[in-house]
Amino acid sequence: LVPRLRPFTSTIFAEMTALAARTGAVNLGQGFPDTDGPAGMLAAAQEAIASGINQYPPGPGRPELRAAIAASRARYGTAFDPDTEILVTVGATEAIAASLLALVEAGDEVILFEPYYDSYAASVAMAGATRKVVSLAEEPSGRFGLDVDALRAAVTPRTRVVLVNTPHNPTGTVLTRAELEAIAAVCVEHDLVAITDEVYEDLLFDGRAHVPLGSLPGMAERTLTISSAGKSFNCTGWKIGWVCGPADLVAAVRAAKQFLTFVGGAPFQPAVAHALRAESAWVAGLRDSLQDKRTRLSAGLAEAGFGVRAAEGTYFVCADVRPLGFTDGLQFCRDLPERVGVAAVPVQVFTDDPDRWRHLVRFAFCKRDDVLDEAIARLRRLA
Ligand code: PMP
Ligand code: GLN
């Protein structure tokens, strides 16, 4: 393995899911739902297969899916031409990798906010570029917010891209309009491209509204907006994602993407197009149910003795293990399946500054209530 990929040999999700399987633990580590998406979407995929949509789709994605993506972005007041400004990818993961491969190379710097989703650092490394990491700042409320001074301090003449994720994995933070405006101001001032990962765009709680960075003034021409079907429609294994942006940037991403996978997921594309067009009530129900699950698991973790942080959206809540007498979240997560039969994920592995994040672990609540209740009952044995 080449040196620049040696830090990325195995993902924490693979490690913790294997550990959960081996020990029979309740898996609140890797974030994936344990129920299926809307029945109409599942039927549409089956119909697509039965009707012969099984060969290579067009390079940019099937036209009905690109049209549905454009229509779905209209709710934010943003307009994309389905022919030139939207590209279907193999999940958000490929969209992120292809965007970075297209836009940065050796000598260029990419700003990431930590804790960062694990694929970001690996994709920056694959592109041969360098990451500059800005820590989110813990607020007294238990929310992790933007430290704009730290962001400004991270910009250098070599900075090309700022990669933003909201709603944020693993903290559950939803960036506010003011925070996004501050990021936009830095991008405009230094002529940077923003890549935004919005895969949890539908999963915001307590009445919060998602604001795409690309919808702010001065940002449409410099933002690649990435999302995917996995989280909105409980189909993380389908790996249908997309990137939207100005034609020149999307053309660049397409150049990289065509030699990664060329195309993918033919029969799932019409099914996701159906879901984007017709399943918004189902998605609202998913959001409400996840909000309840957030509340349920957060309360259970607090009763079990954790220091529970705010979860404003996503599948995830972070918790401090120190009140239970532990100091290291990684060791805690490696021992937890044997100790009480639950799997979680340490936050420090998503950072360049493990000491700052050592005390935090991430639990996924995108699980049936009975599964959450069983996990809570087991975690209470820690006290
Ligand atoms: N970004 C974030 C923040 C995620 O949490 C995930 C999936 N867990 C992805 C990207 C990957 O999305 P996809 O499965 O569509 O590749
Ligand atoms: N995105 C999921 C999570 O954060 C896992 C995805 C993966 O296993 N790579 O848990």
From TrEMBL:
Q: Which InterPro entries match?
A: Aminotransferase_I/II_large, Kynurenine-oxoglutarate_AT, PyrdxlP-dep_Trfase, PyrdxlP-dep_Trfase_major, PyrdxlP-dep_Trfase_small
Signal peptide range equals none
NCBIfam families with a match to the protein in the record: PRK07777.1 (NF005855)
Domain Aminotransferase class I/classII large: start-end pairs: 26-379
Cofactor(s) needed by this chain: pyridoxal 5'-phosphate
Q: Can you say what this protein is called?
A: Succinyldiaminopimelate aminotransferase apoenzyme
Query: Which keywords fit this entry according to its UniProt record?
Result: Aminotransferase, Pyridoxal phosphate, Transferase
> What is stated as this protein's family in its record?
Belongs to the class-I pyridoxal-phosphate-dependent aminotransferase family.
Gene Ontology terms, cellular component aspect? cytoplasm
State a single Gene Ontology molecular function: pyridoxal phosphate binding
Q: Which domain of life is it from?
A: Bacteria
Check the record and name the Pfam families matching this protein: Aminotran_1_2 (PF00155)
